Structures are given as C-alpha cells and as structure tokens.
Amino acid sequence: MNEAALRSEDHIFGHPKGLYFLAFTEMWERFSFYGMRALLILYMVQDLLISDRVDKVAGMAAYRTAIESIFGQLSTQAFASQTFGLYAGFVYFTPLFGGLLADRWLGAKKVVMIGIALMTLGHFAMVFDWSFLIALLLLVLGSGCLKGNIAAQVGHLYPKAAEALRTRGYTLFSTGINVGAVLGPLACGTLAQIYGWHYGFALAGVMMLVAAAVYFAGMRHFPDHRVKPADGPAPRLAGNDWRMIGLVALIMAIMTLQFLAYDQSFNVGLIWVADHVQLETAMGAVPVPWFAAEDSLASVVVVPLLIGLWQWQARRGSEPDDFGKMAIGAGIMACAMLALAAGAALSGEGHKASIVWPVLAYFLTGAAFMWTWPTMLALMSRRAPAAINALMMACVYLTAFVSSVGAGFIARFYEPLGATQFFLLNAGIALAGTALFATLGPSLRRAMDRHDQAGESSPLASLVASAE
User: Which CATH class is domain 235-468?
Assistant: First the structure.
C-alpha cells in the first residue's frame, strides 16, 4: 500500500476507515468492561454474598468449596476479593489463547465476533443471580477472544512501511479505550446507585450490543489475518536470546509489585471507600464506581504533562531511562496507597474519612499507571528477541494476571490488619518495586545492552532481518 492508497476514498483524515469502526467498537466494549468491573466487588460484598439469594447461584457451593480448598477458610470479604482477583486476572490470561486461535485457525474477524457474542451474553447474565458465575466465565472467555485480536486488527490496517502512521492510529484507538474506561464506571455506577445493581449490569450489556453493531457495520473495512505455516522448521532461539528473555522476565516480576497495589485499589480500595468515606457532598452522594472512572481520567490527563516533562528533561539531558521511569511510577503508586492509609488513620471511631483522600489516591493510581505501563510495553518491544517479539508482547499482560490474582490473595489481610495497616502494607509492596528498579536498573540496562550488541551479529538475528 503506497501513500496514494492511504489518501484514497477508503481513508478518513489519512487513516483507514476500519480504524474508526475498531476504535468505537473498543470504546463501547471497554465501557461495558470497566462499568461492570467497577460494580463487581461492591455487588458481592454489599448484596449477593450476604443475602439468601447466594444459595440460588448455579455452582456457587461447589465453587466456594474449590476456592477454600486452595486458599483456606475465607470471610465474605476475602472470598469476594479472591473471586474478583481471579476474574480480573484471567481476563488478561485468556487473550494468549484467543490470539493463537485467530492466528492459526479462524482468523481475527471470526474470533472477535465470537468474543463479542460471549461478552454480550456474559453482561446480560450478570442481571440474574443464578447465572452470576456463568456470567464471569463467559466474560473471561469473551475477553480472551476479543481483547488482543481487535488490537491486532488495527495493525493489519496499515502497510508495514507506514510505521509513524500506524503509531498515530494506535493512539486514536487507545483514546477510544480511555473514553470508554471513564464513561463506563460513571454511567453504570450512577444507574446502580439510583435504581439497583442489575440496572448497572444491564447497561453494560446494552453497550456491548452497541459495540457489536459498530463492529458488524465496519466488517467490510477490516482485513483478516492468519499466520501461514512457515516453510521448514522455525528458527531456534540462541543462548543469548534466552538470557535476554530471562532479563525481561525479571523486569516483569519486579513490575508486578507495583501492580499488586494498583489492582488492590479496585478490590479492597473500593470496599473501604464504600464503608468508611464520607461520600455525601453539596451536590449529592458520589457513587463509589466513580473513583474507578477517576483513575482512567487521570491516565488521560497526565499524558500531555508527562510528554512535556520528558521532552524538557531530554533537552537538559536528565530524562530518566526506562528503569528510572518505572521506579518513579512505583513510587507514585506507593503514595496512592499512603493516601488511603492516611484517610483511614485520620478517620476515628465512628467518623468517616474525608473524600479528599480517595480523590487524591485514585488520581495518583492513574498517573502511576502511565509512568509504568507504556514504558514497559516500549521496553519489551525494543528488547524482546525478534523471533518471538509478538509473543513476548502478549506475555506482558501476564503481569496483570499475576497481580490481579495476587491482589485477591493479599486482600484476605484487610480485616485482620485493619485499613490503615493494610494500605501501608500495599504501599510497602509498591516501594519494594521502586527500590529494586532503582538499585538493579543500571545493571539490568548494561546487561541488556550487551545482549543486544551480541544479538545483532548472531545467525538468528541475520535470519530474522532477511525475512523482514
């Protein structure tokens, strides 16, 4: 595809029409996903698990027996938090299989359609008590089919040589994600507070129908993609490549420390806000899910500030490297947990904490996310061995799987420790990430530079370069 093709009638403002259909599909899908996620933990601890209706949930007795056989006896809050953690974690684990299904067998279009259907059924299944666990399973499987493949379709819209244009396309696509992540908790949370939980869940289902309509309307603009079996055996990774993979895995493990605290803000954090924060304002009560929307909004607001800061630092020769940025992000995440701890400590017996503390905390979580997550994606794209670069990019999401499940496990200590000590514990976990990145960062960077230099002259690197 040449520049003339990019200006053809199949393009709008220089981008393929398919980009806009995919961006709006993802916007409404993320609206549903984040809107439902903002309600989930509160719905369990404030309603479903403390009511007689829990006995009517299909498979609940067997599920609880299985969970407690692994994690031990759990209180209602601990059981809800562990369930939330498992759900949030597997949402980021199953895309590995969805990508494989699309690449090798069905193609991205068919797998995305399957994902949309499963997620739509899952959101509507949340409206009924008996299908609660079935709903979570459908949402996990649907997200696995949709999440990675719809993003991959964006890349398939552009010719390989149009690198800068593709980057701008992904920026527009990510804007749709962020808009949906802000609007979903705001709208679903408001409906849930005014009319009841199931109205919020139903709205998430309705917006998945909108996402489906947008995707089907734009299907003729989407290319399909399937990996064709290569001629001959795939090139084997060299010893240098395996050492680089080991270094990348270590970095991912350190980054998980920050995200344990981040995921806790949507787990126990929302429980604490609901129970111990004064949410009444002069304009009425603030729905708890709105704090999840604030995190997403902060992730959008800080982007131009960060870009401006880094450009200013670059001109002065003081811009932090990738490890420095991730260390700062982990430190900001620790500050968010400290804000929640301060709010808990300053609210005495019988007195609720000021709303200022969670407002501050959830702005900081969004800011910390933008210091760390895009930096990790960029580092992985640059450092992962070329022969498995796409696979390693997908593996970054395994950190979200580990941190979500881990946060669910750590949540069991909320009731025994109390809110102040619990949030201090999470601040300490994030600070451990800061310390490790700050101390090990220079050594890790030097080691990766050496392996990059050695890899440039390896036979495998030459083979991959010639294939490109």
Answer: mainly alpha
